[in-house]
Amino acid sequence: xxxxxxxxxxxxxxxxxxxxxxxxxxxxxxxxxxxxxxxxxxxxxxxxxxxxxxxxxxxxxxxxxxxxxxxxxxxxxxxxxxxxxxxxxxxxxxxxxxxxxxxxxxxxxxxxxxxxxxxxxxxxxxxxxxxxxxxxxxxxxxxxxxxxxxxxxxxxxxxxxxxxxxxxxxxxxxxxxxxxxxxxxxxxxxxxxxxxxxxxxxxxxx
Length: 206
Ligand SMILES: C[S@@+](CC[C@H](N)C(=O)[O-])C[C@H]1O[C@@H](n2cnc3c(N)ncnc32)[C@H](O)[C@@H]1O
Known about the structure:
- The chain is α/β, with parallel strands linked by helices and 206 residues long.
- It has one domain (33-203): Vaccinia Virus protein VP39 (Rossmann fold, 3-Layer(aba) Sandwich), CATH 3.40.50.
- It is built from seven helices and seven strands; from the N terminus they run ααβαβαβαβαβαββ.
- It has helices spanning 15-21, 23-26, 43-52, 75-85, 99-109, 125-136, 162-172, and strands at 33-37, 59-64, 92-96, 114-119, 139-147, 177-182, 186-190.
- The chain has a seven-stranded mixed sheet, sandwiched between helices.
- Helix 3 (43-52) links the parallel strand 1 and strand 2.
- Helix 5 (99-109) runs parallel beside helix 6 and helix 6 runs parallel beside helix 7.
- It starts with 14 loop residues before the first helix and ends in a 16-residue tail after the last strand.
- The mean pLDDT is 94.
- S-adenosylmethionine (SAM) binds next to helix 3 and strand 2.
């Protein structure tokens, strides 16, 4: 554990549920790969590095614009210092970009698939939906995705808040996911479910 500096305690309340949900990865000695969208000062990132990274080949990729309309401090420097402090700096790739560009590139390059993806920091429902769908393809079968801000109601108009995007995702992808928990954060596992078809001739796809 490094000598970290954080100005916010947003992440702390999620730790017990993360411990439980990610226990399988915690026990894994093989290399794992994690993607985090929206990192702020790196509180969740260093938790991943400290708790899940037993193998020196494990890799954390982070995406952040480092432009936050709500906070007026240089959290990018704090993030970089905290990552250095973890002693696992060489296992972290920092992508300073908007998620659409970064995720599109990652999908196109097919460089890697992830065991765990944490989607945080996206504020508008459209961005949330786009972030989830673009990162979904980067999640391994059996992998876990945690989505933050499900109950966040910052915007006056409901359609702008993350809930509608997350609900839409859960509904449309229900044949491919298992919901682990659904509270302020939502956790899902990617699963391969059979798709039942109707017996009628005219409904056949092939
Ligand atoms: C709540 S903080 C993330 C906290 C972090 N995940 C943790 O748990 O320690 C939100 C982050 O999202 C980032 N952010 C805001 N809008 C973004 C966007 N469109 N794309 C990527 N990151 C964004 C902000 O710069 C900020 O670092």
